[in-house]
Amino acid sequence: MKIEETTGTVAGIPAEPERATLEGKNKVLGFWLFICAETTLFATLFGAYLSLKGANMGGPTQAELFKMPLVASSTLILLVSSLTSVLAITAMRHNQASRMTGWFLVTILLGAAFLTLEIYEFIEYVHEGHTFTGSAFGSSFYLLLGTHGCHVLFGFFWILSLIIQGRREGITVHTAPKFYVASLYWHFVDLVWVFIFTVVYLAGMTTGLT
Amino acid sequence: MTTIVILLVFALFLGGIMSGGYTSRYVKRMEETSIWGWITTVDHKRIGILYLISGGFFFAVGGLEALLIRIQLMFPNAKFLVGDAYNQMLSMHGTTMIFLVAMPLLFALMNAAVPLQIGARDVAFPFLNALGFWMYFAGALLLNLSWIFGGAPDAGWTSYASLALPEYSPGPGVNYYVLGLQISGIGTLLSGINFLVTIINMRAPGMSYLRLPMFTWSVFVTSALILFAFPPLTAGLFMMMFDRLFGSNFFSVINGGNVVVWEHIFWIFGHPEVYIIVLPAFGVFSDVLSNFSKKRLFGYHSMVFALVLIGFLGFMVWLHHMFTVGLGDVANTVFAITTMAISVPTGIKVFNWLFTMWGGRLRFTTAMLYASGFIVTFVMGGVTGIMLAVPPADFQFHDSYFVVAHFHYVILGGTIFGILAGVYYWWPKMFGYLLNEKLGKWNFWTFFLGMHLTFFPQHFLGLFGMPRRVFTWQPGYNLEMGNFLSTIGAFLMTIGVIFFIINVLVTITKGKAAGNDPWDGRSLEWTIPSPPPEYNFAQLPLVRGLDPWWLEKMEGNDQMTPAEPLGPIHMPNDSHLPFVMSLGLFVSGFGFVFQSSQVGAIGLIVVIATLFIRSFQEDHGHHIEPQPSEKGVEI
């Protein structure tokens, strides 16, 4: 590896291993652009939700459905998982592979906990009569949250495969960009949840209260 | 029917596994064929050619559809294509021309020219580039298979709800539309990201942003538009798909859905889309006009500014497609103003093109003829655009042939002329020989006159009250002459296209070798052999100003100053995974079209499995060692 020899290193790898090669730089920039695209995707879903949320067609309303304790714990879990992914990247920058994979493992376990809560929540809603096909409110609600949930699910498997790669190959200028963009992805998914929490849950719980 | 589909899907799936490397002898045999080389290529130049061939094929398909439409409309009360058959033809003509012709042909030019113009050895993500192409092709194929299995989409290229909902469009037609566009749309998004990163990160030393050739600039802005415009389409298509296949209620009014939501989402995508397909054409014209006027592009900086402004404003005009929906005076007024505002940067560009030609040493090659023809045609289309931007007038023009005339003037006169100019201009670079200029001129004049003969009368047909999208018309309303002329024009355009095909066929065997620089060019692509070697530049060039190659020529140099010593060149490895992944998406799409979630799931599993295989692959590429020799550089 020429790069390791020529640039300043921290614990045997370049200071920012994810940007040390042109491929790495491309990957990071490309992923930021992908996040831009994802932002407009979610913006569209939010737009559809906001324009259809009133159409519950006799089913339960938002204020009747949403329960703060459940949603608050989901939020807390996901925000903590963002923190642990930061810790993983910090470990990556210090070339501590096992520590990094450990923190990533915590991250995806928290993601799995979030998904479990979300599935439980959806089952509850269906029992209360809030379904995907029941009303336009239901359709737009489940599409928005389902898309977000699918992102968490995909992130779970993606980071899981990266943990395996990290265990096998350690941290190099080839693997570092992968870890880095996965953590970017995870932050983005968390950020979307913050908006869902505000726009869907908080605003939903307060509608009807004046 | 279901059995056929399942069998077909199974065969495709089996093929996917076989080519995936599970039986090594089969793969070895496959790898020796030249088709395999094309399937697995990640070279931007070869991908450009793949885009050109498939886009060209669908251009023929879409053109024939247009011809059939015009034959039906030639005389009143014709019985050639009636009712649903006409609806399918019309929907597929629009969808094909926008998504399967304009986009891929522009991507062909982008792939052929952009990396060469910025002095790069390849795009930023060669793998993604191949994936983008194969996804486009899978989507295109899926969409067109609708003709054979179950009937084509028949709700127009805009596929408005509630016309596109199962109640009014039963059968799989609109499913094909939704899934075909979904697959090819995601491919387009990937390509857009790829070109953005390429232009940001891969420029040769000295190639600053304000030294980029105009075509590269236009691709940059276009890719940014793709980045923000295609995800809303993805979201909208998902909603339409769920409404049609899984009983959701986004657009179903009876359960609280709202049809206007689809219109908004579609046009939030759809209006930037028209700039996506016209801006690269603007870029082609800028390069062509400057090259064949033997002058620097007039007002380069204002051209860049205008491009960026058009891209920016392109996102805030979508409502002008919906003036008659009834969203209120304020909304209509605001969007009328933003729409008219776009004509300012467009006007800047038109004047700069004219001033580039002014006082230049003009050479009217075919590419230049298309560029000049474009200015006239596009200004006419722009003027009718301004007329349509006035809401009270739009209430009269809406859904009439006036609109049809307008958008064909801008799309044919802009995008298609641009593509043809670009094809004539870069053909020698792509294939190593020149297209015949004499046949090129026949091609231009028949196509150009045919285009005006087809669409000029349609302005008047529209003003006389002929509605668009209707399969026939009545005699006695002054529509006879216009419709007859329009159909004659369509035949003339077909002759033009045939001239082009003859030109290609003739020059394949008898084409004049192009050499490095057939047009006395100005930008970096003309400094290297035609067709360029796999690695493009043996040594990355040092760029010292705008029009770098012209600059060196004027200083008496016969080559660019190299920016690096000769050394091993890093190249990406070929991969069959993009093809397998697209095959998975194709199978999945086909499954969902027929509401078979099992087949759909199988396809998606293939896709996800390929994703993870790719993630685990240790693919560091390979190195080429260039050897200096007397004739230059050899491998």
From TrEMBL, chain A:
Q: Which Gene3D superfamilies match?
A: Cytochrome c oxidase, subunit III, four-helix bundle
Q: Where are the transmembrane segments?
A: 29-50, 70-90, 102-120, 140-164, 184-204
Organism listed in the record: Marininema mesophilum
Q: Which PANTHER family match?
A: CYTOCHROME C OXIDASE SUBUNIT 3, CYTOCHROME C OXIDASE SUBUNIT III
Q: Which family does it belong to?
A: Belongs to the cytochrome c oxidase subunit 3 family.
**A GO molecular-function descriptor:** cytochrome-c oxidase activity
Tell me which residues make up the Heme-copper oxidase subunit III family profile domain: 29-205
Q: How does it sit in the membrane?
A: Multi-pass membrane protein
> Lineage in the entry?
Bacteria, Bacillati, Bacillota, Bacilli, Bacillales
Which keywords belong to this entry? Cell membrane, Membrane, Transmembrane, Transmembrane helix
Gene Ontology terms: biological process: aerobic electron transport chain
User: Which named protein is this?
Assistant: Cytochrome c oxidase subunit 1/cytochrome c oxidase subunit 3
InterPro entries cross-referenced by the UniProt entry? Cyt_c/ubiquinol_Oxase_su3, Cyt_c_oxidase-like_su3, Cyt_c_oxidase_su3-like_sf, Cyt_c_oxidase_su3_a-hlx
Q: Where in the cell is it found?
A: Cell membrane
UniProtKB/TrEMBL annotation, chain B:
Q: Which UniProt keywords apply?
A: Cell membrane, Copper, Electron transport, Heme, Iron, Membrane, Metal-binding, Respiratory chain, Translocase, Transmembrane, Transmembrane helix, Transport
- GO CC aspect terms: plasma membrane
Q: What is its EC number?
A: 7.1.1.9
Its annotated compartments are: Cell membrane
Question: Pathway, according to UniProt?
Answer: Energy metabolism; oxidative phosphorylation
Q: How does it sit in the membrane?
A: Multi-pass membrane protein
Identify the domain of life: Bacteria
Under the heading SUPFAM superfamilies, the entry gives: Cytochrome c oxidase subunit I-like (SSF81442)
Residues crossing the lipid bilayer are: 47-69, 90-113, 133-153, 174-197, 217-238, 304-323, 335-355, 367-390, 402-427, 439-464, 484-506, 599-616
Q: Where is the Cytochrome oxidase subunit I profile domain?
A: 30-544
* A GO term, aspect molecular function: metal ion binding
The family database entries (InterPro entries) matched by this protein are listed as: Cyt_c_oxase-like_su1_dom, Cyt_c_oxase-like_su1_sf, Cyt_C_Oxase_1, Cyt_c_Oxase_su1_BS, Cyt_c_oxidase_su1_bac
* GO terms of biological process kind: electron transport coupled proton transport; oxidative phosphorylation; respiratory electron transport chain
Is Heme there in the keyword field? Answer: yes
Is Chaperone among the key words of this record? Answer: no
Catalytic activity of the protein: 4 Fe(II)-[cytochrome c] + O2 + 8 H(+)(in) = 4 Fe(III)-[cytochrome c] + 2 H2O + 4 H(+)(out)
Q: What is its main location?
A: membrane
Which NCBIfam families does the entry link to? Answer: CtaD_CoxA
Family assignment? Belongs to the heme-copper respiratory oxidase family.
What this protein is reported to do is described as: Cytochrome c oxidase is the component of the respiratory chain that catalyzes the reduction of oxygen to water. Subunits 1-3 form the functional core of the enzyme complex. CO I is the catalytic subunit of the enzyme. Electrons originating in cytochrome c are transferred via the copper A center of subunit 2 and heme A of subunit 1 to the bimetallic center formed by heme A3 and copper B.
Name of the protein in question: Cytochrome c oxidase subunit 1
Q: Which organism is it from?
A: Marininema mesophilum
